[in-house]
Structures are given as C-alpha cells and as structure tokens.
# Entry
Amino acid sequence: MGPGPGTFMNAFDAAVNTDGFRNNPYPFYAQLRESDPVHWCEPWGCWVLTRYADICPVLQDHATFSNRGRVTNTIQREYPGDFLQRIQPLLSHFAQGLINSDPPDHTRLRRLIQKAFIPKTLEILRPKIETLVAELLGNVAGRPSFDLINEFAYPLPVQVIAEMLGVPPSMRETFKDWSYTILQFQAVPRADQDIILVSQKALVEMRGYLAEVVADRRKNPTDDLLGELVRVEEEGTRLSHEELLSTGVSLLVAGHETTTNLIANATYLLLTNPVQRELLMASPALYAPTVEEALRCEAPLQRLGRSVLKTSTVGGKTIEEGKTVLSLVGAANRDPAQFAAPDSFDITRRDNKHIAFGSGIHFCLGAALARLEAPIALKALFARHPKMSLASETVEWHSGVMRGPKQLRVALGS
# Structure
C-alpha cells in the first residue's frame, strides 16, 4: 500500500523542487488524482484539484472562484504585516489588470484588447512570423547543434509580442530576465520573502520601462497595441493608468513565456517520439493537431489559482469562502477519465478538449497567437532539419507555474 492522502501530499510538497518532479511531475499528479483529488494541502494552505471534471467547472465559475485576489489573498494571509508593507507595489500590481480581475472590469479590459488577438486580425502577422522564423533558422545554419530555447523558441514570440506592443526587439533579453523573475515567487505557494522581493524588483523595473513608453506614446501616437491602449486611457472612462501598466506587463510576460515553452515542448515530444514524428513528416496537415497534443501532453502553464468568493462543494468536499483553490492543469490534461491513454503523445488524437489555455471568461487571450506561431515555427524547423535529434539525453526542466526545458540543445544532423 502507498502512503495515505495527507502523507502523500506532504511528500508531494517536499518533491516539488526535486529533480524527479521537475523532470516528470505526472506520476505525482496521478497519485494525487487517484488518492485524494480534492485535497486540502496544509503545507501550501490551499485546496489542490487534479481531476478534469472538477477543474473545468471551477475555471468556468468566476462568480465563485475568482481571479480577483488569486495572488494577493494568499500573500496577505501568509506573510506578516511589516513584510506586506514592503511589497505594496507587487500587491497593487496583482490587484488589477486583465488577468487579475473579474466582470465588470475584466469584461471592459478584455473588450479593449481582444480585437488585436482574434485569428482574423493576427493573420496579418503571418508573413512577419515566417520571416522571423527564417532569419532565426538562418542564424544557426551550418552549425552542428544549437540551443533551441535561446536561439529560436524564445526570440520568436518575444519579437512578435514586442512588435505588437511597439516595444523594440533590442529589449528582448531584458524582458526575458524580467518575465522569468516576476514569475519566480509563484513557483511555490509559500515563497521565501527574499524571492518575493526579487520578483517585485523586476516587476517595478518592467512597469517603469512601460511607463516611459506610455509617456512617449502620449507625445508621439502610434498604431501599435500599446498606442491604442494609451488612446483609450486618455478617454478617461475606460482604462486607468494603473490598469494600462498592469495589463501591459501581463501581455509581455504571458505573450512569450507560454509560446516559448509550447514550441520547445512540442519539439522535445517529437524528438522523443519517433513514430509520431514520422507520421507528421508524412502528413504536414497534422501540424495544428500536433500543437494541440503538445499543449495537452506538456501544458506550458501547469497550474491556475482562484480565490473562493463563496462556500462551495467540489468533488464532494466543502471549500469555504476565503480559501484558495489551485487547479493542476497538467494533471487534468492527463486525466484518464477524460483522455484515452493520457500519457501517450498522439498527434492523431480526436476530440482533444485540453485546458492548457484555461477555460471560461479567462481563457487565454493569446491562444490564437500561440496557435499561429507554433505551427509555423515547427513546420519550418523540421523541414529545414529533418534529421534533427536531441544533442543530450539529459534535459533540465523548469518547475513551477510554467513547464518547459531550461535548455534544449539539438543536433542538426548532416
């Protein structure tokens, strides 16, 4: 017999930052899903959900499980008052903006931004994306190997979102560092105070940079997305300055982190599943389904938090008002009750209703952009390097909110 639910969860808590969990969290997810799928996790101070059938309704019920306070409530509950005073900039940021709000604010903000992210509008970017992909692959031509993350999967989406927002691509390395650091305090539910302070420093720096860009947009109007948001702000009734900065940070961070990991994860899965790779090479029409299966099998965003606004029942458990619910997307996407052979990477999978982009009103705004970029990138990569392989059998993975390789060195073959 294995450990009981409580014992297991304590072991799970201890395992989160181990190499075993980083490399393959799915056995842990499966054991928790089977032993106690709606679990009060004392070490984390929140409810942890692992079943698809429980998580989907939670993500769709914003009236009960709210994005507002999903980050700030936990921090304010877990840390002393003197420390909370030191992190007011971080708390203020995560108390507003598109990702951290619910209707009516969320409805208003999403309406202002979503026109730029619908497939019909994004299709205009296709030639630019194809050109960027060709340039990036050209930069590594003739070399025996290269790091797919730093030289391809990262610079492509960051340049695309930078162009959409009107931020110069020369800032991409800075944005990479800011984005990674801002997310660090969310890697574990109870981060050390020093980690939170480092995340806040990066957040303040990014917001400061955006404030300078916004000031320039007021003097020199532009047609990019940030320029459009500035014009809306100046109407005085739709978008406040603080909302603009919080939303700008969210778009820059989420706009490339997810797609970077998606491209890297999909490449890794294809290189480690030769039968699926051969199937794709024989049928290029499968690139879009391949991206969906990669999203399911290795979700770039592994978990989503919600703040409980009113006492509710989930999976037979009573979840009280004021608590936090943590939905493990990576576990739900491999739930055998929803997906046949869930641990298998199958690019011909039908009815692939994964929740890698969330569900409900907070469904990822950038999903259409990721679904445009990733097939273009993968198709060009494998067409240009049909004999590509992993240069090392050892791959080190990020652990926490985002999942993807820290580095993915690939050998290009002859």
Remarks:
- The radius of gyration is 21 Å.
- The CA atoms of residues 271 and 389 lie 6 Å apart.
- Strands lie at 38-41, 46-49, 65-66, 145-147, 303-308, 312-314, 317-319, 324-328, 389-390, 409-411.
